[in-house]
Amino acid sequence: MVAHVSTVAFQGVDVVEVDVQVQMGPGLPAFTIVGLPDKAVGEYRERVRAALNALGLALPPKRITVNLAPADLAKEGSHFDLPIALGLLAAMDVLPGDTLGQYSALGELALDGALAPVAGVLPAAIDASARDRGLICPAIQGGEAAWAGDLDILAAPDMLALVNHFKGTQMLSPPTAKAANGANMPTFPDLRDIKGQESAKRALEIAAAGGHNLLLSGPPGSGKSMLAQRLPGILPPLSSAEALEVSMIHSLSNTLPEGGLMTLRPFRDPHHSASLAALVGGGARAKPGEVSLAHRGVLFLDELPEFARQALESLRQPIESGRAVVARANNHVAYPARFQLIAAMNPCRCGHLDDPGLACSRAPKCAVDYQARLSGPLLDRIDLHVDVPAVAVADLALPPPAEGSAEVAARVAAARRIQAGRYAEHGLLTNAEADGELLESVAGPDADGKALLVAAAEKLKLSARGYHRVLRVARTLADLDEGDIPVQRGHIAEALSYRRVTPGR
């Protein structure tokens, strides 16, 4: 007899059903697994054997074969431990196979039989709900699985509790959905902490309101990092649909806080030594990178020119398409990557290009060499280019400003509500996502504004991409100004002031 237990494998954010087939037959004692398992799956033997010993059970001296079907799909991760163990128990007539057939299972086994958390519980639960099945998962992740909807969830702390539940001697309580808003959730500093830098704060508000990319350039200590770290505090919380979308990615990466659904927008700030695979995803198992972990949130790249050139250039496609496609010889997956890029940089290596008393002996050539690390196409994809000068001592001595993150966040939320209503029929959320005819229809300026834009585009040699990004920013400025009004000349003028013109680009 062959015992069957259902589980899943992951290809990006897509879920593929896997049938775990366990057969015990005559022959020399052996324990074999087939079906393209990776090293983590191949190590299941000792974990499963020890977990069964913790239950007081020993594997029979038979030839045991475990097949993971479909056999041509690579199986990765330790979450196959639990379905394999359940298949063995069904083959040994310890558990009823027909009851197990109503569930999909995933979980990692400890040597004492405890169930450890694994990646991908939320997408697995959504898939189980779609296939009208229940889900068996570790107890600590029951609250995560409960967000998938109305399905039967068995969230067990260990194998013994699970066996007792199926035998009717102990009932597992259904978990309740929870949000990851506990002590591990980040708290963002307030804009009130920043003195001066009114122009930079204005640009930060515009970026937050329209989902625009922003580049902050200035000398060391001018407050670029402080500004970027305060952006998440003025962004609206995730909607229910966004929260589910973001949480699925973090569930696959096993970075979902407290096993609950995320409600705050992610803020990712990788070090400038990050590799291409770390930024856009990849590696041997094609895992999501920082651009996907920042989906619907903020990706902050400090010291932008210090990142590897290849890694920076790899950002161009995700910025435009909102997806990160990871292609390997044996794998091809796509992860959502609709992030907001906030970058900070010094004007040159020493950082004091505009101060003759502090600039190095190679100025201004060092600035040309330093900024040349950033390609024109990458800079063209950044909507707002803002210079952040050094803060005057007189500003530092002033009391904190009256307006903080709460006041700015209210204006940002109002602008986002306008955009949500505007793009509801198109599946978009912000002005930064609008393109083509839709952009022309919602951001077409008045006659004076159009004349200014055409003249500026010719004089500044704006690319088609730069032209459209000016329109997007102008649309956001209009939304912040008086609500859903047409784009006017003043909005176009301010949007043009944020375009960087670099000679030779």
- By CATH, the topology of the largest domain is Rossmann fold
The CATH class designation of the largest domain is: Alpha Beta
Based on helices, strands and strand pairing, what is the structural class? alpha/beta
Average pLDDT, rounded to a whole number, is 90
Q: In what range is the share of β-strand residues?
A: 15-25%
Low-confidence stretches: none
Number of strands: 16
Give the termini distance in whole angstroms: 70 Å
CATH architectural category of the largest domain: 3-Layer(aba) Sandwich
Radius of gyration: 27 Å
Put simply, the count of helices is 22
Task: Identify the overall geometry.
Answer: elongated
Short description:
This protein is 37% helix and 16% strand.
Structure description:
This protein is an alpha/beta fold and 505 residues long. The chain folds into three domains: 2-167, Ribosomal Protein S5, domain 2 (2-Layer Sandwich); 191-429, P-loop containing nucleotide triphosphate hydrolases (Rossmann fold, 3-Layer(aba) Sandwich), CATH 3.40.50; 434-505, no CATH class. The mean pLDDT is 90. The strands form five sheets. A five-stranded parallel β-sheet has the order 11-12-15-10-16. A four-stranded mixed β-sheet has the order 1-2-4-3. 37% of the residues lie in helices and 16% in strands. It is built from 22 helices and 16 strands. A hairpin with a 5-residue loop joins strand 6 and strand 7 (115-116).
